[in-house]
Amino acid sequence: MTSHQFRLGLFDLAGVVWAVAGAQLIRFGVDATSVDLGRSQIPYVAVGLILAAAWWLALWLSGTRDSRILGYGPEEYKRVTSTSLWLFGAIAVVSYVFQLDPARGYVAVALPLGITALLFSRWILRIVLVHERNAGLSLRRVLIIGAPQTAAHLNRQLSSHPEAGYSPVALYLTAEGPSASDDFGGGVFRTRPDLANILAAVEEHNADTVVVSGGAALPPTTIRQLGWALAGRDVSLVMAPALTDVAGPRIHTTPVAGLPLIHVTTPRLDGLKGIAKRGFDIASSLALLALLAFPMLAIALWVRLDSPGPVIFRQARIGRAGEPFKMLKFRSMVADAEARLEALRARNQGSGLLFKIKDDPRVTRSGRFLRRYSLDELPQLFNVLNGSMSLVGPRPPLPREVEQYDQFAHRRLLIKPGITGLWQVSGRSNLSWDDSIRLDLYYVENWSMVQDLIILLRTAKAVVGKTGAY
């Protein structure tokens, strides 16, 4: 057990005890009460202790403290939530079968209190773990096996995300060829790919995880024998298929004749999913417009008084399926900003097709403040309401950008553009053109309502942090 897993155990125990104690006080106060079992009764204090112990054990047995899911991705939070719901579902079934009569208010309070406490403590501990991993601690030492290009790609991806907990210490190349592995700071092996050589590399670099890429020239029998040998050394074996930018829910494994076949599905934003996303957009935009009505009126007055010109700036953008629409924003530049554009081309600091200037002389005094906190984008709630945009989606492109798209970039237009998206929470104007396209394509290929909610939560942090806003 690692130190982080030990901390998780302590925090989980504190969370479930706090939940059952809070449920006891909220439901019954300080007065002692009990559950009627027919011929006997059990005090609710004892019930709470049994529930806390069962909850803590369920979290352990369901793998919520598995080191493979800690520090990165939503799987840890999903397991905590589903385990808690399954436990209380089992309690409801047992109570019905044996005709027990637990207070419904007690259960109704304990469950949300516990889930909230557990998720909050997991979030806090994840911040601590990510800080440790960024400092070079609590990392798995990884030996990567593969062809030069695939091994170098895995090395770059794992090294750029230390919060995931993997630190490449050596590359075992199964073929000759130029690659970025030549600049790798650890060990690079170019010997014949057989079991003895791989195990020697594991021992030499004290690796505790071996990652085999999809391009590794290893026969099936060697991979199977490698798994047996690594299991005896308590070293993890990870298979990395030649897939990139594919979210977990799209991957399904089916064992067929001893082969783990990987199915990759493509989410379709139609039917019930499309209705759910559109319904969420309408309800949320209406609620936000009602909540922000007076602040938006104040911003409109400020823009009007700060510089001559219209309050609302209407700009042609390209929406879903290439349909043009007028995107609304509070005007943050002088009225003749478009006419001055060509004179500023030489000062462009944007990447690719994006035009950005950090200290754009066309931006007004009010515009600098509005842009810093993304308040100039509030009128886009009307675009969401009329259906030309969504709350979350790819960045709405300009017509001149779309004209220069390649065949892959056109996939961004499969769904509606959004007020916010992965581009907004991942750096905004600091992103390169390639990164912006990659993030938008990832969103299109891996859309889910859960991902939309996560992006909306991260947007608030990005806006307050002001990173990349200009």
UniProtKB/TrEMBL annotation:
Q: Which UniProt keywords apply?
A: Membrane, Transferase, Transmembrane, Transmembrane helix
Domain of life (superkingdom): Bacteria
InterPro entries, sorted = Bact_transf, EPS_sugar_tfrase
Task: Kindly report, in one word, the top-level EC class recorded for this enzyme.
Answer: transferase
Transmembrane segments in this chain: where?
Answer: 9-30, 42-62, 83-100, 106-125, 282-303
* Protein EC: 2.7.8.-
Q: Name one Pfam family in it.
A: CoA_binding_3
Q: Where is the signal peptide?
A: none
Q: How does it sit in the membrane?
A: Multi-pass membrane protein
Molecular function (Gene Ontology), one example: transferase activity
Location in the cell: Membrane
Where would one find coiled-coil regions in this protein?
A: none
Ranges for domain Bacterial sugar transferase: 277-464
State the family it belongs to: Belongs to the bacterial sugar transferase family.
Indicate what this protein is called per its UniProt record. Sugar transferase
Q: What organism is listed for this UniProt entry?
A: Sinomonas terricola
